[in-house]
Amino acid sequence: MNLLLVGINHQTAPVAIRERVAFTSGEILPAIASLQKTLNIEEAVILSTCNRTEIIVSSDGANQQDLSDWLASYHQVAPNTLQDSLYSHTDIEAARHLMRVTSGLDSMVLGEPQITGQVKTAFADARQAGSVGSNLNRLFQQTFKIAKEVRSNTEIGHHLISMPAAAIRLAKMLFTDLAQCRGLLVGVGDMIELSAKQLRDAGITELTIANRTIANAQSIAEAVEARIIGLDQLQDALPSFDIVISATGASLPIIGKGMIESALQKRKQLPMFLVDLAVPRDIESEVGLLRNAYLYSLDDLAQIVSENMALRQVASEAAESIIESGIDQFRANEQTRSRQDLVLAYRQQLETIKQTELNKALSKIDQGADASEVITALAIQLTQKYAHQPSVALRTFITAENHTALDIAQQLLGISQSDKDS
């Protein structure tokens, strides 16, 4: 099925590089269209999350360098910036990697559940773009089946420390009583929803959600009893908050160094705890240079979330076993399909020869040729055409004294010993 996967993730590159090749939700469809047009690829899926950007294609022509060059060109990044961070997988290894990713085994937070939904969204986007054919459809359906089995039959999702939970741990080191703090969440989505619940569970009752579209923040705000403000109110509101967690889909930072510098002055240098869970980043990295501004990115939180890795190691091994079984099944299904395709291709080849010669014969009859002679000539032509390629192969095997191939050919052509002796 000629699978190829090229990607970059939290293991191969820091957030400063990952954010340069990330796709916002609004960029996925035009990016797929560009990929298809530029590289003449029919089937393609683009997965872009906080921790990874991956391109999965099924194509006869494209190679790893093609996809790498396209990714760099699309984001206007110098290719040498990415060359040490990109990885690639083909065919079964690509399928194995995708199954591990979708099951949460390749995540920064081992077993985190959000990735399955993110892969499903990427697949749905590709279907909307018309870039999912039979090959990628089979791959992703098997992937979702295996991911569900991993979730159902292992404890891979247990003992999790999420990114927001890790952030709360750090906040408790800065503030003696979180209940006295005010929290601001910028954006909407799974990460913000989880962060809001973590802040509420930590005892913070004064919560505010800032979002470009007020209506989109309504459900999260109601769940945690938070108020809502627009992004246009963000700069004026910042001085009121001790804790700021941001995770939008913006392509450029929305909180700059100047905004936080001004907020700190108005707070009389009371500390601000800021967490940037977005890729590309929402908060300018220079904010971390300000006195009394404590800025943490996804990469900063990675060490904390890996602390209880040992607790999930057994579950991880069980999950890997399920994935290997899924890969075996996927490989067997593809091999069966390949054999069926071979039979179909052979029959189509014979059908093409037959139809070509038949059309010639019918044309001769229409022109007044003797039907009996035409039919005899047709039979001779078909015999010669059908026998040509097998005869060439047989002569090659005989010349090379390839007895194994000759035995297989005898069985394939249905020739018995008595046929050869007669």
Brief write-up:
The protein is built from 17 helices and ten strands.
Blueprint of the fold:
Blueprint: E1 3-9, H1 15-18, H2 28-39, E2 43-48, E3 52-58, H3 64-74, H4 79-82, E4 87-90, H5 91-102, H6 114-129, H7 134-153, H8 163-174, E5 182-186, H9 190-201, E6 206-211, H10 218-224, E7 227-230, H11 234-237, E8 243-246, H12 257-266, E9 272-276, E10 293-297, H13 298-305, H14 313-366, H15 371-399, H16 403-413, H17 417-421
Parallel strand pairs: 5-6, 5-8, 6-7, 8-9, 9-10
Antiparallel strand pairs: 1-3, 1-4, 2-3
Helix pairs in contact: 2-3, 2-6, 5-7, 5-14, 7-14, 8-9, 14-15
Description:
- α5 (91-102) crosses α7 (134-153), α8 crosses α9 (190-201) and α14 crosses α15 (371-399).
- The protein is elongated.
- A 6-stranded parallel sheet has the order 7-6-5-8-9-10.
- The model has no long low-confidence stretch (mean pLDDT 90).
- With 422 residues, the protein is of the alpha/beta class.
- The protein folds into 3 domains: 3-159, Beta Polymerase, domain 2, CATH 3.30.460.30; 163-304, 3-Layer(aba) Sandwich (Rossmann fold); 337-416, no CATH class.
- The protein is built from 17 helices and 10 strands.
- α10 links the parallel β6 (206-211) and β7.
- The two termini are 44 Å apart.
